[in-house]
Amino acid sequence: MRKLCCILCLVIIALYARCVASADEKYSFSVGGIIRALPGNGRAANEIVVKHENIPDYRDETGAVVGMMPMTMPFYLSEGVSVTGLQVGDKIEMVVEQRIKPKFSEQVVTIKKIS
What we know:
Elements (H helix, E strand, L loop, with lengths): L1 H21 L3 E12 L9 E6 L18 E6 L14 E9 L5 E9 L2
Antiparallel strand pairs: 1-2, 1-4, 2-3, 4-5
C-alpha cells in the first residue's frame, strides 16, 4: 500500500510539473521584412507594420507549427524595444516571441536595420 501511495504521489508531481511548464509555453522566430508603418499616425505607440517574409516556424494558438506566407501585418513591440533610427521602407530583421499560454500573444523582442 505504501509503495502504491509513493507511485501515485510521483505521478501527481510529474503531471503538476508538466502543467506548470506548459503554462508558460513560448517560442520565438526570426524574420526579415520591410517596414511599412511606424508607431503614431493612428497606430498604437508600440505597433509597427511590416511586410514580412515567409515564416516556416510560425505557430498557431495551439502551439502547432503551421507556417505563415509572406504578408503585410502589424506587430507589437515588447517593452524597451526601440524603433529609433528606423524609417518606413527600411529592410529589417526582427525576432518575434510567441506565448501560447495562458493567452496567445506575439511581441517583437529585437529589431535591427539590415543593408
